[in-house]
Amino acid sequence: MGHFVPHTDAEIDAMLEFMGLSSLDELFAVVPEGLRLAVGEDGEGGGGQAGPRHLDIPDGLSEPDVAAEMEHLAARNAVGAELLCFAGGGAYDHEVPATVRRVAMRSEFVTAYTPYQPEVAQGVLQALFEYQTMLARLTGVEIANASLYDGASACVEAVNLAAAATGRSTAWVSRGVNPNWRDVVRTFAAGSGHEVVEVDLHDGVTRWPDTATATSSGDRTQQPGAVVVQYPNYLGCLEDLAGARRLADELGALLVVAFDPVAAGLLHSPGSLGADVVVGEGQPFGTPLSFGGPYLGLFSCRKDHVRRLPGRLVGETVDTEGRRAYVTTLRTREQDIRREKASSNVCTNQTLIAVCCAVQLAWLGTTGLRELALRCARGTRYAREALLRLDGVEPLVGTPVLREFAVRLPVPAEMAVERMADEGFLAGIALGDEYGVGLLVAVTERRTRDQIDAYAAALEKVIR
Amino acid sequence: MGHFVPHTDAEIDAMLEFMGLSSLDELFAVVPEGLRLAVGEDGEGGGGQAGPRHLDIPDGLSEPDVAAEMEHLAARNAVGAELLCFAGGGAYDHEVPATVRRVAMRSEFVTAYTPYQPEVAQGVLQALFEYQTMLARLTGVEIANASLYDGASACVEAVNLAAAATGRSTAWVSRGVNPNWRDVVRTFAAGSGHEVVEVDLHDGVTRWPDTATATSSGDRTQQPGAVVVQYPNYLGCLEDLAGARRLADELGALLVVAFDPVAAGLLHSPGSLGADVVVGEGQPFGTPLSFGGPYLGLFSCRKDHVRRLPGRLVGETVDTEGRRAYVTTLRTREQDIRREKASSNVCTNQTLIAVCCAVQLAWLGTTGLRELALRCARGTRYAREALLRLDGVEPLVGTPVLREFAVRLPVPAEMAVERMADEGFLAGIALGDEYGVGLLVAVTERRTRDQIDAYAAALEKVIR
Amino acid sequence: MTAPLAGVPAAGGRATSAPLMGRDEEPTLFELSSPGRSAWSFRTTNLPEWDAAELVPAEHLRSEPAPIADASERDLVAHFTRLTHRQYSVDLGAYPLGSCTMKYNPKLCDDAASLPGLTGAHPATPAHLAQGWLELLADLADRLCRITGMHDATLQPPAGAAGELTGLLLMRAWHAEAGRQRTKVIIPDSAHGTNPASVTLGGYQTVTVPSDDRGCVDLAALRERLDEDVAGIMLTNPNTLGLFEEDIAEMATAVHEVGGLLYYDGANLNAILGVTRPGDMGFDIVHMNLHKTFAVPHGGGGPGAGPVAVSERLAPYLPGPLPERGEDGEYRWRMPERSIGRVHSWHGNALALARAYSYILANGADGLRRVAEVAVLNANWLRHRLRASYDVPFDRPNMHELVVSTTSLKKASGLRALDVAKRLLEEGFHAPTVYFPLIVDEALMIEPTETESPQTLEALAQALERIGASPEGAKEAPRTTPVGRVDEARAARRLIPTWDARPLAATDAAAEHMQAPSARY
Amino acid sequence: MTAPLAGVPAAGGRATSAPLMGRDEEPTLFELSSPGRSAWSFRTTNLPEWDAAELVPAEHLRSEPAPIADASERDLVAHFTRLTHRQYSVDLGAYPLGSCTMKYNPKLCDDAASLPGLTGAHPATPAHLAQGWLELLADLADRLCRITGMHDATLQPPAGAAGELTGLLLMRAWHAEAGRQRTKVIIPDSAHGTNPASVTLGGYQTVTVPSDDRGCVDLAALRERLDEDVAGIMLTNPNTLGLFEEDIAEMATAVHEVGGLLYYDGANLNAILGVTRPGDMGFDIVHMNLHKTFAVPHGGGGPGAGPVAVSERLAPYLPGPLPERGEDGEYRWRMPERSIGRVHSWHGNALALARAYSYILANGADGLRRVAEVAVLNANWLRHRLRASYDVPFDRPNMHELVVSTTSLKKASGLRALDVAKRLLEEGFHAPTVYFPLIVDEALMIEPTETESPQTLEALAQALERIGASPEGAKEAPRTTPVGRVDEARAARRLIPTWDARPLAATDAAAEHMQAPSARY
Ligand SMILES: Cc1ncc(COP(=O)(O)O)c(C=O)c1O
Ligand SMILES: Cc1ncc(COP(=O)(O)O)c(C=O)c1O
Question: Most buried pick, B287, B424, C388, D164, via CB within 10 A?
C-alpha cells in the first residue's frame, strides 16, 4: 500500500465518530450494492467476469520495489551510447543543460495548479509571459499562446482557427508536413467536418495545385481556408514560403506554417515571410526525447486572430496597488466560460514543458540559438556528404536541406534501421511510401564527427 | 572557458573606464612583476620550472564536454549491481529515498551561506534545530551541535572536550573504535599533546585495564580524562556500556560513546547508559556512500558541557515582534570570537549533510527507525548464519553482534575481497592485524535474501 | 543604472531581487538581458566550421540573429528561482480545489520519470529496442482497464479534454460503422466546460439535461431527451457536485435502449477507486485524468494525460498504434482494425504515463481503495464541519468533494464566493474552485483529497469560519500575497500578450535596446 | 484542533502554512507529528522476520522505540519546502560577503556530484575497482598544485580550518624530524579566527604581528618577532583587507632565514587564479577552500573541502593514503613515508572534490584567470563607486574584496555596520561580513565575486547609498524578512537547544504527546 495518505487509524476513527459513522464502508452507502466491488482477492473479476468482483491488480509495493521495477523497465530500452540517435522526424536529441533541468523542475513549477488565482501564481504566469514573448520573437508574429499539447495538436488548432476565420472548411496540407501530424489532423477532421486535401511534393518541396481550378470552381467550400506548409519540411527541405504566401493570398486563405524552432535560428522567421499562424513542436528546447511526450505544441498567430486563439494566453496587467502583475486573459474564448461555443476544448495544456522551453530559450539566448542552428546544419551537411560518398546511397531529393535529410538506400530502409541498431545506431526513420523508399536522418549539435564517421562506416557495412 | 562570469566586453571596458584604467592587467599592478604568471601556454611552467611561468592546466571545456569527462570517470568505478555492497566499517549502503534527495537538495539549502544573518536564514536554522532535537532524542543526552566533519573528527573533538573538562590529557580508547577514527585521533593528538592509550579487545569486546594501576600511580596526567568506546563496536559487537560507565566513574573520566545511529533504533540510548558525550557517523541517514564524503560528524553531550561544545549550536529565541525564531547561539565559544582560546577551530561544517540527515530521520520517524534497525539486524543474522555454514568459515568472535560481523576465512581476507569482486560483490573489509585475520561484513536493509544467498555461494567458490 | 556605467546598455538593474521581502516585483528576462551576455555551451564535435552562408541558401538566411534574450547562467538561475518564490504549489500547501484533485505527488514518481532509460528513448525506436517502454504502456493500459472495468485503452490523449474528443470520435465512428447518423449528445447542466466544447468539436450538438433537486441528473428529463438522434451521453459519477448518481443503472439502460453510448468523464475517478467501476455501471467509454487521480503533478497547468478506455465493442476503433504483448512475450505495436487514427504526434505524454504507472505500482489495489476511502472521508467530514458556517446546498452524503455556497453570507454581509477565495489565499490555502458548477449560486467547490491530514482540514475549516465571521475587508483581499488583487479586466481591455507589446513608458526607455522586435524579423 | 477531532492527539495544526504570506511561522516537525503517522518504505527482502528479542540480547534492547518524529511524506515535503521559502541563498540573490567568496555555483557541478558511478562507491572499494575516483582525485591534486605552484597535495581535510590544522601538523612534523622544538607561530592581526584557533590546536602559541597603515603586515614588526622559536607564519595574500602583500618576497626570505615555514591561508585564492601563485611567493604550505574559490556551494555552512598542498620538502609528511598514478597507468593508494597520519575518516569530502574538479575542468586556465580578473575588477569598481558614501580606510588598489566602514556615518547619525547589514537584507541583498577584520572600526567587508553582474553591483551601491543617506529606522531593520531582528542575547541567556528543552507554555499543552523525551530513553 502506498504511503501517501497521512491519516492514522485513530484519526480516521475520530473523524468517522464526528459524523456518526462507524466504518469507512458506510461512506459508500450511496453506491448501489450491485455496483460495489468486493475488497480482497477472491473471485475472478477483471473486466467484469464471474465471481465477486474486486479490483484485480496486485497490492502496493514499497518505494524501493517500485524503483527496482521501473529501473528494470528502463533498462529494457536501448538509449544513449547503446543506440546513438540519428532519428528526428519531429523529435530530436538535443542537449538539455543542467541549468534547465534543475531550475524548471523546481517543485513550485512542477506541483503548481493552473494559474487561475493570479495572486499566488505569478511565478508560472511570468514564466509563461516570457515564453510567449520569446516565441513571438522567434516566429515573427505578435501573439503566442501558453502552449498546446504537441506539434500535431497545434496543427489541428491552426486548421480550426483558419476555418473559423475564413468560414471555409477545406485545408490544403502539404505532404511536407510531418505525416504523424497529418494523421492527427485527419482524425480530428472527422469531428469538425473539415476537408483535408493533401498536396504532393516534387523533388522535396510542395507543388501546389493550380489556384485557378480551386478559385474558379465557384464552390467556396472547396476553396481552402488554410494552406499548411512546413519549413523546413519533413524531408528537411526549405520550402518556398513566399510562394505559399502568394498562393494563400490568391485563394483568400490563411497561411499556416509549421516551423522548426531550431532551424529558425538561421532562417527568416515565418512571420516575416507572411505566415498568419505559426505552429511547431517545442520539444527541441529543454525536453528530452521521452519516447514522444510530454512535448509542447507551439502556437502563435497574428494579432487579428487573437479572439480565436486556442488555449491559454497570459497578459500583463497591474494589481490594486499598481504593481506589474500577470494574469490569464481573454478567458471568454475558453471552454470553461464559452462551453459549446468555445473555439477549442483545451483545458490542461503543457505549461511545465513551456516553462522548460522558456528556460532553455533563455539559456540559449540570441547568440546561442543561432549557434545551435549552425551546429545542427554543419552536422547535417557533414553527415549527408559522408553518406552520399557510400556506394549505392543517393539523395532522395535535390532541394537544399537544413536540419534533416533523406537518402535512398540499396536495401529497404526498415532493414537498414534494424541492422544499424545492432551496430549501436538509431539510424533514422524509414520513410513511408508517400515519399518513396528512403531513410530520414537527423543530426543535432550533440553528434560529433567521430560519431558521424562511425555511423557512415556502419551503414556501409549494413548496406553491403 | 567557463560561462560563469556574466560581464560582456563592453561592460568591462566601461567599468575600467570609470576607474581610469585601460586594461584588466592594470588591476594587478600591485602584484610584483616577478611573481606574475604569463598568460597563454608558452614555456614550461608547472611547479615553477624554467620558461615564463603560466598556469599550466588545459583551457576550459564546455558543459557537455565536462559531463562526458565526468561520466567517463564515473563509469570506471564499480558500483551498484556491478559490485553489490557488503562493506561497512563506518560507511553503509542504505536507501536514500526520493523525498530526501529532492527536498534536501533544494537550492536554498544547497547554495545558502552559514546562517550568520538569522533573519534570512530561518530555513537552515530551523532544519538544524530539528536535527539537533532528533539527535538529542536518539542519543539520550540533551545537547547536540549542528554537525562536525565526520565520525572521526567528532571523536577527536570529544577527546578534546573531555581533556578540557577534566584537565587530563590522556584518553583510553578502545580498539573497538573504528581504526580510521583512531588514526585521526592520533594524528591530531600530535598537536594537542594528548596521549592516546589504545585498549585491546578480548573476544570482540574491550578489556579495560585495571583501574587500580591507573588511579594509584598518582600521576594525574596518566589518568584518563576520557574513556572512549564504540557501541556496537567496529566488529559489530555489543560492548558493556554500563561497565564502561562504572570504569569512567572510578577514574573520574568522561565516558565518550561512539554510537551507530542505525543500531540505536533497537539499542538503549548511550545517554541512558551513562554516556557524557556521544559521537557518531551520520552518513547512514540520507547520504550515499560517496566514496567516503561528505559525511556527517554527529556530536552530542550532556548539558554541563555546553560551553565546551565544539561547532555551531542553534537555539530558539524570538524576534522583535515576539515571533519564534532560531539563531546560532553561544557563539562566544567559537573561533571567530575566541580566536586562540576557542575550544575548537571548526568553522565550515557539514550543514547540508545535517539537513539531509534531518529529512531522512523525519522520513524514518519513530517507527521507521526501529524497523530499519530491525531489518539490518535480520539481514546480518541471516548472512552470518549463511557464511558460518560454509566449510572453513568461522566466527572471529563469539560476542553478540548487531549490524556487522567478522568471520575468519581459510584464505587471506584481502584475497577473498579481490576474488569476490570478480563475482560482483564488495565482500567487506579485510581486517587489520590488530583484530586477527578476518573479514568484516555489513548487511543493510537493502540486501535481499537472494543477494545474501548469492554472496554466500560466491564466497564458497572463492575460498575453496 | 546610473552614471558609472554610462555607455553600457542599461540592462537589468538587479540580478539580486528580494525574494524574502515578499512583495517586490521580479524584472522580466528581457530587462535582465545585456546584449552579448550568454549562458550556452555546446560540446566539441570537431566538425568543419562552415559558416551560415555555406549552409543556407541566401534567400532563406536571416540577416540578424533572432532576438531572444541575453542572460548569464547566474542571472537566469536567479531569475527563475525567484519566480518560484512567487508561486504557490502542492509542495508548499493545500489546494482544496474541486474537480481538480490536487493531491500530493509522491517523489518516487519524479524519480521514475527521470530514469535515463525512459527519458532517452526516441519515440521512433523500433519496438524490439524499446521493450521496456512498450511493456510499461501495455501494463498501464491493462491496469487502467481493470480499475475502470473496461476492455481496452489508448494512452495517446494528452489531457482529459483530448480524451473527451477522442471518446466522441469513437462514438461517431461506431455509429457510422452501423450507418447511423446521430446528431446530439446529452450532458448534464452541471458538466465541466470541456464536455460541451468537446461535443462541438466532435461534430455533435449539445443537449443539456437539468439536475434535480437532489443534485443528480433528472431521470425523467433525461428520458424526455432520449431519441434516435442521440449519439450518447457524457456523465461524471460522482458528478461535479460530488454526489453519486444513484440511478446510474437506470440511465444506462435508457440510453442504451435508444442505441446511444455512455461516456464517463473520469475527472472524479478518485472517489471510486476500488469501490466501483464505470464499466460495471454500464459505461462504454471512459477517460481518465492521470494528473488528477493518479498523482501526475499539474505542472502549473499541464502536462497531464487523458487515456481512454472502452468496452469490447468499441475496442476496434481505438486510436493506434497500441502496445501489445505477443504470444512470444515480445511487445509490439498493433493498429486496431477500424482505428479512428492517431490523436497524438507519438504515443501520448509518455513520461506522465510512467509517473502514473509508478503511482499505481506503489499503491496497488489496497492503496487505491484507501485513496478513495480517505478522499471521501475527508470531504464528508468537511461537509459536517462547515455546515454551521456556510450554506450546503446538497447536504447529504457526498463522495470526494462538496459544494458549499455563500448565498446567505452574501445576503447578510455581501460576501461573495470570490471574496472567500481571495481571503483564503491570505490564510495560506489555495482557493477552492469558484462559481462552478454553474447550477449553484456563489459556489465554492472543495475537494480536500486524501493526502491532506485531518489537521490541515481543521485549519481550513477554521480559516473558512473566520472569513465568514468577519467579512470586512474581504474585497481588498489578498493583501499578503506576492501581488494584490489583480486587475483582470484591464488585462483583457488593454491586451499586453508579450513584453514587446508593452506601451513604452518613460521608465522603459532604459530597456529600449531589446525593444519592439518587429523591425528585426 | 478543536472539538471535531476530540480524542485524536492534537498534533500539527497545519500542514498548509502560508509561504507566500512572508512572515508566518513554520511549525516544527514535532508539532506536525501525529503518533502513528509515517513516511518510510523499505524494499522486500524475503528474509526471515525475526523479532527484536531474537536479535538483540535483552540487556541491550530498548523497551520503546526512540522518539524521533511522526510525519507523513506529504507533510514533511511541505514542511521542508516551506522552510526553503524562509531561506536566502545564492540562487536567489547576491551575497557580497567578504572572505567567503559566495559565488554562483554552476549547475553542471551539481550534475557531476550526482553521478551514480561516483555517489555509489564505498570508500573501501579496492583501488582497481575505483580507478575513476582515484584518477579524479589524483588529477584534482595535480591541478591544484599547478594552480598554487606547489609540489604535492592531500585532499583529506574537509574544510579550511581542518586544512590549517593539517598544515600546522605538517610544520610540526617537519621541525620535529630535524629535531627542532619550536613553540610559536606568527599571524597578522587581520587574520581570520580559525588561524589562531588552529595554531593552538597545533600545539603552538600565537604571536600576533600588527598591520601597518597601508593595511599590510608591518615588515619591521615581523622582523622583530622572528627568532629561533618561530615555527612559521600564517598569511593570506591578498590579506583579509583585500590588499596584496607586496612585500611577500621579503617576508618569505626573513621567515625562511630563521628556519620557519610560510603557511598560505587560501581563503582569498580567488583573487590570484592564473595571476600569481603562492609557491612562487615562497610559501611552503597552502590550504585551499574549494567551497570558496572553486564554487563548491556552501550548503548553509558546509560541507566544503580544504585540500593542503605543499612544497617538495614537506611532501613526505602529507596525510595519506594519497592517490597516485603508477607507471602502468593504474592508480593506487600510497602512504607517504613520514606521513602525519589520517586527518579524515576516509578520503575527504569526495563529492565536494568532484564538484570542484568539474568546475576546474569547465573553467580551465583561461577561465580561472578570467575569474580572478573580474573578481578584482568588481571589487575595485565598487571601491570607486562607494568612496563618496562610505569611509574606505585603505583607499588604494585592492584585489577581490574591499573593506569599508561606517565610522563617519556613526558619528553623524549613529549608523553602525550592523545596521547597514540588516538594512541591506531588506533591500534583497545578503549582508556583507561585519566587524571583521577586527582592525577596522565598524567594518563592512565586501566581496562581490566575479559572478555578479555590473548591474547587480550598481544596485548594491545604490542600496548602500540609500542606507547611508537615510539611516532613520535602521535599528528596527530588517522589517520585511521572514522574521524581524532576532534576539540573539536571549537565545544565549535562556538556552533552548532542542524542541524538548522548550519551557512548556500553555499553548504547547496540545503538543505534549511528543514531550520531553528524558522519561523515554
Ligand atoms: C469534470 C472535468 N472534466 C474534464 C476535465 C478536463 O480535463 P483536462 O483539463 O485534463 O483536459 C476536467 C478538468 O479540469 C474536469 O474537472
Ligand atoms: C580567511 C579565512 N581563513 C580560513 C577560513 C576557514 O575556512 P573553513 O570555513 O573552510 O574552515 C575562512 C573561512 O571563512 C576564511 O575566510
Answer: D164
